[in-house]
Design a protein that fits this description.
Elements: H1 3-18, H2 22-61, H3 63-67, H4 70-91, H5 108-114, H6 119-132, H7 139-168, H8 174-190, H9 193-196
Helix pairs in contact: 1-7, 2-5, 2-6, 2-7, 2-8, 4-8
């Protein structure tokens, strides 16, 4: 991988990781409801899970969508159903002080598994591998792209969790928190619009 390609990959990884999307909206809601520390497994699950996804795409998994176009439709339906479920959980979340049973942050494994039905994560992985994976063979180029994403993604998503913890200071009344949660849930659902409008 040339220096120019590496810089371009870092730029793409940063911009695509820090811009709004399902992961970042969920992390902002998690930061506001559960705080930074309790959201850490969620953040690690996103970063490591997406890097694994990038690696698998680089090893040929992305070809599945070319060979079997119906796989795109299946992914679209699964991601829509799961995002609606997550939006419902966000809308009805409550901070631990109001009752632990009302909600809890995503675990590491839940966040990692979510990447496989996250349309933005698939786009990021396929675009990065297609445009930036260079070198001999497929393993090392895929691992290089995944490593760059891991190093760039985690600091980017930390920003959204931190933003959520700062917003929490403004949400001093339960009604304000409910409004924030419903707003985040609606925004999460709206991230599906590009998926269905092609």
């Amino acid at each position: 991988m040339t220096y120019e390609i590496l810089i371009a990959l870092i730029g793409f990884a940063f911009v695509s990781s820090i811009t709004p999307g399902p992961n970042n909206l969920m992390l902002m809601a998690s930061g506001a409801n559960f705080g930074f520390r309790r959201s850490l497994p969620h953040m690690l699950g996103i970063s490591i899970g997406h890097s694994f996804q990038v690696t698998m795409v680089g090893l040929g998994l992305g070809q599945l969508f070319v060979t079997y176009p119906v796989a795109q439709t299946i992914l679209r339906v699964l991601s829509t159903a799961y995002l609606f479920y997550l939006a419902w959980k966000i809308a009805n979340a409550a901070p631990p002080s109001e009752g632990e049973a009302k909600g809890k942050p995503l675990t590491f494994l839940q966040a990692a598994a979510f990447q496989w039905v996250n349309p933005k994560a698939w786009y990021m992985a396929i675009f990065a591998i297609t445009n930036y994976a260079q070198g001999d063979g497929v393993l090392w180029p895929a691992l290089t792209v995944a490593f760059v994403f891991a190093c760039t993604n985690f600091p980017s998503i930390m920003v959204w969790t931190t933003l959520g913890t700062q917003v929490k200071r403004l949400l001093t009344r339960p009604s304000l928190l409910r409004t924030f949660n419903w707003t985040m849930a609606v925004l999460l659902v709206l991230t599906l619009v590009p998926v269905w409008i092609e």
